[in-house]
Structures are given as C-alpha cells and as structure tokens.
Specification:
The chain is α+β, with helices and mostly antiparallel strands. It folds into 2 domains: 91 residues, Winged helix-like DNA-binding domain superfamily/Winged helix DNA-binding domain (Arc Repressor Mutant, subunit A, Orthogonal Bundle); 122 residues, Beta Polymerase, domain 2 (2-Layer Sandwich), CATH 3.30.460. It starts with a helix and ends in a 6-residue tail after the last strand. The strands form 2 sheets. Strands 1-3-2-8 form a 4-stranded antiparallel β-sheet. A 4-stranded mixed β-sheet has the order 6-5-4-7, sandwiched between helices. It is built from 9 helices and 8 strands. Helix 2 crosses helix 5 and helix 5 runs antiparallel to helix 6.
C-alpha cells in the first residue's frame, strides 16, 4: 500500500489529486495543466508518479489519455476523497463569509468580485484578492474602510491575508487599470452584487468558474488502461 508520504510528498502531486478528486469522472493531462496554469511536462511527471503509486489510473482514448483516482483503493476512498471534500467545503464556507460582507456595507458596493489564484480554482492560495466596485469615486474610501473592518475576522479565521482593491465603476475604463480589468474578466467570480458592463466575462458563480471537462463515457468504456508517459 502506498504511504501518504509517497502520495502527497510533492506539492504538484497534491494539486493534481485535488482536481481529480473534484472531477471524479476523469481528466486529461492537458486539462489538468490548463486548470493549474502549469507546464504540461510538469503535470506529466506528476501524473507518472501518481500512476506508479497506484492511486491514479490512466486510460487511453485516441491520441489522448484520461486520468482518474482509483476508488477501489481504500486510501483513495477513505482518505483522499474525504480530505479534499472537506477542504472544498472550507473554501466554500470562506466564500460564503465574503458574500455576507456585501450585506453589511453601507453605502452598498456595486459588486464584490473574487479574482486571482482563488478564482482560478487553486485551493492553496497565498491570499484572497477582492475587487470591490462602488457607484462613485467619492464612496471609495468609506467602502474600503468598511470592507477591511468586516473582512479582518475572516482573514484571521482562515489564515489568509485579503488583498483589497476598491474603485468606482467609471474608473474601470482608465488605461491604468487595463491589465487588472483583463485579469478580472478572465478569472473573476462574482461574490455579490451585479457585474458591471466593463467586466463582462466575469463568471456569476463559483460553480460556473470551476466547471469540469466531462469525459466521454463511451470512450472510457472502450479505453485500455496502461501506465505510459503521454498525457
């Protein structure tokens, strides 16, 4: 039986296992690399290590391969899946607390958007990045102070610093904020309020942001298990 040191001994191993535990139906190596923003070669090596331990299976279909946790193994069924499930619940709880912040801010924020590593689905972010949009620039300072006060306890509880950017909706059009706006449009998840037109593309729910690429079950059924090195 593979030990937890062998299975979890590498940071990238843990990241890959996290996504496989969430998908349950299987993911391609390229799909995992895209979700983690990692090089395919690094993901390939992590998958090879995990396949060698036996906790991950590989099935080929066409020129691609699908990877999944082997739920026949007790260590997968009784430790890995429940562990990542609890971690996911903790992350969802954190987001619920952040949503509640919006209901206590007066004057109300136009919208509160999660972006950065947390919005991209990384379950081990170093901080929480929030963009708070106000109706007018004159409200920025007051809203900033209120949000900081409301999120201080959340930051302590979950051990994560909260990076806060507050700006009025008209400021989104400024050239100086173009890079930030593009990042938020690409990765952002609305936690509260409505999405401004300038940020069209922001996902309206965490579920929408983290949708998985479902495997073609017909292909899975005819796939052949092996432990090669392609992804």
């Amino acid at each position: 039986m593979a030990t937890l040191e062998t299975i979890l001994g590498d940071r990238l191993n843990i990241s890959v296992l996290r996504w496989l535990a969430a998908s349950r139906g299987g993911l391609t190596g390229n799909g995992i690399a895209k979700r983690l923003g990692a090089h395919q070669s690094s993901i390939r090596k992590a998958l090879e290590r995990l396949v060698t331990t036996g906790v991950v299976t590989r099935r080929d279909f066409g020129r691609s391969a699908a990877y999944a946790l082997d739920e026949n193994l007790a260590v997968v069924r009784k430790i890995l899946i429940p562990m990542f499930g609890k971690e996911r619940e903790l992350w969802e709880e954190l987001q619920s607390h952040l949503r509640l912040v919006a209901t206590t801010v007066v004057p109300p924020a136009r919208s509160i958007i999660l972006f950065g590593s947390g919005a991209r689905g990384q379950r081990d972010p170093q901080d929480i990045d929030l963009l708070v949009i106000t109706p007018a620039r004159t409200q920025n300072e007051k809203v900033r102070d209120l949000v900081i006060a409301r999120t201080e306890r959340i930051s302590r509880r979950y051990g994560l610093p909260i990076g806060l950017i507050v700006m009025a909706e008209p400021e989104l059009a400024a050239a100086a904020h173009r890079k930030l706006v593009e990042e938020v449009k690409r990765d952002g998840v609305r936690l509260a309020g409505s999405v401004p037109r300038a940020l069209t593309g922001v996902r309206r729910s965490v579920k929408e942001a983290h949708q998985k690429e479902p495997m073609n079950r017909g292909r899975q059924a005819g796939a052949r298990r092996r432990t090669g090195s392609g992804i």
